[in-house]
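@channel sequence for tomorrow's demo:
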Amino acid sequence: MRRLDSRPIPSTPGEIRAFLPVRNEALRLPDNLNHHRGLGVSRFFVADNGSVDGTLEFLLAQPDVHLFRADQSFAASGFGMAWMNQLLDEYGCGHWTLTVDADELLIYPGIETVPLTRVCTHLDHLGAQGMFCMLLDMYADRPLNDVGYRAGDSLLAACPWFDPAPYRTVQVHAFPHIQIYGGVRERIFHFSGSPAPHPPTISKVPLVKWTRGMQFTNCTHAVSPMQMAQMTGVLLHFKFLDDFYQRVQVEAARGEHYADGLEYKIYAQLLAQNPALTLRDQNSARLQSSRQLVEMGLMAI
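structure tokens (generated this afternoon):
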């Protein structure tokens, strides 16, 4: 990787540092950075994989972003995890680190009044090194081609709806030994009738007190063994914006995601039949608070 900025990186103990792999994310990045700054993230380490939509220019203008160019194949890098592991070892050791995609916003119990710095201090006190999160797909109550989202707007205001159920947990070999499946992508895109071995995995370990030599081994779905917190969080996932159809076409053709982009090919097949698809149905819930998600059993205190 080649570093693109020249900003000093202080050796400040106690900083929470975020790490992101990105490609053409100018639409989502402004709210992503603002959300995590508001939680207490001090600086961001971003590996860009060939953006051409203004992402680089936006990131270079941010005083708390350290930007790196990763020109290798996304698939060959373990879907960006080789870049993240390298940056985490170099800049994350001894820090609480948050590794997320540009379309993911971390929330946790009590987020409305408790900053992330206090959460991390509490986890330190308990001897925990990581926090498990469910990935919760968020969507609008409008057709996918008419969400009306603009860069800098609130992602949550544009897409406040989610599937409250059903979700299921599967035991796996890789730590933390469980993966979660279900939600709107399984409901709408019919992965059960496809060549995919399973629907998209919707569980991750994004918040980690990093120690040199740790590794993410399957995106952030799997990580080196560590002491996990009893508290769990949620990553609000904002995949379904106005650019979804175009991104699906690009990624289905590039074949750089899991299984030669099979997930995106499944999306493309249904969207070709119904480009004005609406995801909300009679069972959808509107996000109100972190307490709501705790009461639904989607995260734990």
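heads up for whoever presents: The longest helix spans residues 258-273.
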